[in-house]
Amino acid sequence: MKKQQYLKWDEYFMGIALLSAERSKDPNTSVGACIVSESNRILSVGYNGMPAGCPDDEYPWERTASNPLDEKYLYVCHAELNAILNYTGTDMRNAKIYTTLFPCNECTKALIQSGIHEVIYLSDKYSDTPSVIAAKRMMKSAGVSFRQYKAINKDIVLKL
Prior knowledge:
Order of helices and strands: HEEHEHEHE
Helix content: 25-40%
Structural class: alpha/beta
Distance between the termini: 30 Å
Strand content: 15-25%
Number of strands: 5
């Protein structure tokens, strides 16, 4: 008889996104993303962080500063964009992305252009911001579906 308490696909891929978020050095918001093919194969993962070659000790992690150049927003690469840029294949058409935070408008443009057709997100805590409102508007226009992941409240302990 097979094991009954195995992870379903949504649980597995959101778990990968959550694990990827653990690589982020952002002290406020760690985000992870996992891009998956139509046949449930992982194509790529990403997390929010500084671009390659930009040491994360030399760039700011502050949310607010008197000078915008001292805030993280001009420098950090979002998890969804990192996952797209980390992909080494040739085709993401009809793929889906699992992300721990609803994508911003800029990441949404890249998701649409990459051919991703579904977004499964864990949190939508910025739902009332212009960035997320614009993202949802673009997704609807482009036929990209989105849905919130339904947490199962299961703890998984990894001994590393």
